[in-house]
Design brief:
Strand order of the largest sheet: 31-32-34-33-35-36-37-38
Largest sheet: 8 strands, mixed
Number of strands: 38
Shape: globular
Number of helices: 12
Radius of gyration: 25 Å
Oligomer: single chain
Length: 687
């Protein structure tokens, strides 16, 4: 395919510098941050972003037929009139469905005893005429009469809560703007507890709204004094207690409020202690507390409700089993975790004894509890998938151990799992650490170094990337790609220590792991340098920014989505929404010179140098509150002015969307198709 060469925009430079810890930092593209943010109306800033978007469109135009082909493939793998498996909650069954051709879901229910289906909420109708629409979630009162739901219509992640009478379909006049996170009803359905976002996009206040009264009269139940902590509300599985939890990336603190008396004095479980995380469930008069106080592998302790700070060990930490969650049910409790990086589900009796561990069929997979809203159950709803097995919903009978498959993700255009193979390899990083990698490819893929390889990772905040199924990646596998997920340090794929070994002073392990995985996969014949494409988003976009600076020769092309690349500047800007809460993850370069120097040594924007870079596909969101739009914009501008190659460099800013890109199940597919087409083009795989 021959491309004409439209001229890329060139961002102006303006003298700007500051000094910190005796070091002067020049930042000639600082002007791309509109000082009135979150309002962005600076004409020069908008003109530059629009020019980059026009350039993106011009460069990608010859690829439009390929983008459309891949988009139709992806769309053809989605069941257009899909539906979730109904789940019982009280006297009703609840499920979600897509009508044919719809971009958004309908939320449904019907009586367990039989009767008409009810459309509780139709996202598609609500999204009509909007460039962006996202439902935050729904909550339904215990008497099934009222529904609270929240929506974001600009990608700013500031949601407005509204209420609907499900018996009459009438909308209530109550409207609560500026919220974020979950919200829960009191037992009697008269009150809703929710979190309010402040100007710094931080939930510091938990309020209670009495249905039918002015929002201005809502009472504050909790206000978090630490600017680095976020607060939120939830509910225990028994629904007897509302949880008010607060914390940052390494410390947590929990208060409990009786769901039937929301103005009662909260019960503090245990005061915050730096580095200690815990979460709480209840069973009768006993609390079940999942915590890392004694080990990064976590343990389970119990405490009497009357003395919640007196912890007694129930399940000790295990060197091989990483405990990720505990859920209490009326007659048993479930412990979830990972053994050697693979998901496990264990069922425990309250009386004690050996747990039952549910067996799963493949060597590499992702599994866990699915939706289980009720407290007293005889069947557990589970979900299961692998890189070759589509998403599967199953019921596990606790009495017999029988597993019943309820639904396997349907792929209308066809899918034969026997045509694909998956494997898990361990790669030795430069410091001797063994890093797991999950790989999938179509059978017949030859490990001769000539095949193209797509390498993905995230590597931050303790977020594990499971070896799960994706219909999207079939468009690459069917064109001869191998697809690999590198389970690098920074995530908690192998336990919380795995996360700790990729943060703060050990952050560079994350980047080194990714590079070492790429090199070793090449040595194993999956590709060769220049035939590897890499992708990551947000903190994974930071990863992309680092590795194109340090090892540009490895990559045939790189996609960095909403990339966190202006790390040094962002971590020094206390006015930005998330900065104080991020210091436990990255370090505080304002007060800590060592943190300043370390971040400066890897921050992608600060380490752009005159060298050849691989082709780059960069995205951002104008309303993104997590990675602000100017990070990818500044990085792109500096790369254009500095790099020595003629490889294509694209920046696409979603002018009406935020961190998650475009909303709607089909529109988001088109963005995936654009990335895939770009990679195919750069690897010479376009006819």
């Amino acid at each position: 395919m021959v491309h004409s060469s439209p001229k890329p925009p060139v961002a102006a430079t303006r003298a700007h510098s500051y000094e910190r810890h005796g070091t002067r930092i020049d930042d000639p593209y600082a002007w791309l941050k509109d000082e009135k943010y979150p309002t962005v109306d600076d004409v020069e800033v908008l003109d530059y972003l629009k020019a980059e978007n026009a350039y993106f469109d011009a460069v990608m135009k010859p690829l439009a037929p390929l983008v459309e082909t891949i988009f139709q493939e992806m769309k053809g793998r989605l069941k257009e009139d899909d539906s979730s498996v109904p789940q019982k909650d009280g006297d009703r069954l609840y499920w979600r469905r897509f009508e044919k051709g719809a971009q958004y879901k309908q939320w449904m229910r019907s009586p367990v005893s039989g009767g008409d289906e009810q459309v509780m909420l139709d996202e598609a109708k609500m999204a009509e005429g909007l460039e962006y629409f996202r439902l935050g979630g729904i909550a339904i009162s215990e008497d099934d009469r009222l529904m609270a739901y929240s929506t974001d219509t600009d990608g700013s992640e500031r949601y407005t809560i509204r209420f609907r009478n499900l018996e009459t379909g009438a909308e209530l006049p109550d409207e609560i703007p500026g919220t974020l996170g979950d919200y829960v009803f009191s037992t009697d359905g008269r009150h809703l507890l929710y979190g309010l976002v402040n100007d710094s996009w931080r939930v510091e206040t938990i309020l209670v709204h009495e249905i039918g009264t002015p929002v201005a009269d809502d009472k504050t139940l909790y206000r978090e004094p630490d600017q680095g902590f976020q607060a939120g509300v939830g509910m225990t599985q028994s629904r007897k207690w509302i949880i008010v939890a607060t914390g940052d990336n390494e410390t947590s603190e929990v208060r409990m409020i009786p769901a039937d008396n929301v103005f009662a004095d909260p019960v503090m479980v245990r005061p915050r202690c730096r580095g200690v995380e815990y979460d709480v469930e209840d069973h009768g008069d006993t609390l079940y507390i999942h915590t890392n106080d004694a080990s990064t592998q976590f343990r389970l302790v119990t405490a009497p409700l009357a003395k919640p700070g007196e912890w007694t060990e129930r399940i000790a930490p295990s060197p091989s089993f990483y405990m990720t969650s505990v859920t209490t049910f009326a007659d048993f409790f479930v412990v979830e975790g990972r053994e050697n990086g693979l998901d496990q589900v264990e069922i425990h009796d309250y009386a004690g004894g050996a747990p039952r561990r549910i067996a799963f069929p493949e060597a590499s997979y992702s599994a866990g509890l699915d939706e289980n809203p009720e407290y007293k159950v005889s069947v557990l709803r589970l979900s299961y998938e692998s890189m070759v097995t589509p998403d599967t919903v199953m019921d596990y009978d606790l009495a017999t151990g029988a597993m019943t498959t309820l639904k396997v993700q349907e792929i209308p255009s066809g899918y034969d799992a026997s045509q694909y193979a998956t494997e898990r390899v361990e790669i030795t990083a430069r410091d001797g650490t063994k890093v797991p990698v999950s790989i999938v490819y179509k059978k017949g893929f030859e490990k001769n170094g000539n095949g193209p390889l797509y390498l993905y990772a995230y590597g931050a905040y303790g977020y594990a990337i499971p070896p799960s199924f994706s219909t999207l990646r079939l468009s690459l596998l069917d064109r001869g790609f191998a697809y690999a997920v590198a389970h690098i340090r920074g995530g908690d794929d192998l336990g919380q220590q795995w996360q700790l070994d990729g943060k703060l002073t050990k952050r560079t392990n994350t980047f080194n792991d990714f590079v070492d995985v790429a090199r070793e996969l090449a040595d194993l014949g999956f590709a060769r340098p220049g035939r590897i494409v890499a992708a990551g988003g947000s903190a994974g976009g930071e990863l992309m920014g680092v590795v194109v600076n340090t090892n540009p020769e490895l990559w045939g092309a790189v996609a960095a989505h909403v990339p966190f690349v202006d790390v040094l500047n962002t971590m020094q800007d206390e006015t930005l929404p998330l900065t104080p809460g991020e210091w436990p993850e990255w370090g505080n370069p304002i007060t800590d010179k060592a943190a300043f120097e370390l971040i400066r040594s890897y921050s992608p924007y600060d380490n752009v140098v005159p060298q050849a870079y691989p082709p780059l596909f960069i995205t951002g969101g104008l309303t993104d509150p997590r990675v602000t739009y100017w990070e990818p914009a500044k990085w792109t501008a500096k790369l254009r002015a500095t790099k020595t190659d003629d490889n294509v460099l694209l920046l696409k800013t979603n002018m009406g969307a935020g961190h998650g890109g475009k909303s709607g199940r089909f529109e988001s597919l088109r963005e995936d198709a654009e990335e895939y087409a770009f990679f195919l083009w750069q690897l010479g795989m376009v006819e």
